[in-house]
Amino acid sequence: MSAADALSEGHGKLNPSIVAALYLAHGEELRRFLLGLVRDPALAADVLQTTFARLVERGHETREETRKAWLFRVAYHEAMAVRRREAVGDKVVREVAWQANGDVTTAEDRLVRFEAVQSVQAELANLRPAERQIVRMRIYEEKSFAVIAKELNIPLGTALARMRTALMKLRKRLPRPDEESK
Amino acid sequence: MQTTDNQLNTGDLDWLAFCYVANELSADEQASFESRLADDQTACEAVARAVELVQAVALAETCDRERPIPASITRRTTWPRRLAWMSVGASAALVLVAAALGWQSISGWFAPPPADRGRLAEVWSQTRDEVRQIVYTEPLDLPPVMEADFSSEESLPSWITAAVFNQAASAPELDGPSTHDES
Prior knowledge:
Radius of gyration of chain B: 55 Å
Helix content of chain A: over 70%
Radius of gyration of chain A: 20 Å
Helix content of chain B: 55-70%
Strand content of chain A: under 5%
Number of strands of chain B: 0
Structural class of chain B: mainly alpha
Largest sheet of chain A: none
Structural class of chain A: mainly alpha
Strand content of chain B: under 5%
Oligomer: heterodimer
Distance between the termini of chain A: 19 Å
């Protein structure tokens, strides 16, 4: 698509169809990234919306091959601005409140999420019991590694190593972002 | 937790992103990582992956925790379902009662009243005895049978005679070669 085609006629803005395509391709990954920054699904959704509003306004100034990186930069700065504005700062960066049920927007997202959960569930069953115990205590029971090490009476390094090994195994079962957007 | 951001491979970056997301980094490490996110897209993508992984694991664990309760048991405890089964059972019982009552009334139409059964047997016995007496003690006074005279051909209708002779002539020979010379 040429640069002229990418612009809405007479407005100097990015063509809405391109914005929509970019949202489909990167929206979910951006939303997760923002959730990691602001730790709140509603705030993450607001920032995602603002990011794409910026894309509509300023997207025509970007090159096609750099738009994804541009989106992540804008999202990051918007998220940091929200954190400062909301005065949540360090307060929001506490334990991750993984409200995984309320932040999925579309049926396709739900399907992707469902498949990911199923894959992870299958891999969880294949983990060594010691690894699975760490994963459960850290993510499901939301205990810190220090607490886990103390409760299991193991060194902190051992708890971290088990978690890291388990995460590497689990991550292999997740679809890659480029696969999701297809 | 001391980490060096330099020369991190993908596994290290993913681990660092997970520690950031899980709030396991110190304040300095967190600030350092966040400043890196400003212009490092791979780090941003690692954060997105970490969030996805943690959410998927949390949901998977939630499903595992809920699995020990069989769905059939939880369904059984729902009141609408219980009421539905109760109504079905009550309906079936009503149908059975109605069928039983209806069968009794129908069979009552055809069966004689119990009080008349003895009388009916008595009448049947008397009638049977009277019939026996009539048959064995009083021979029938019937007029003598009129013997038909089939000796003459005139007593048979002519068309019967013609039909019999035609049939005999056209019937195949069963007992041996035909004696007729048709030539």
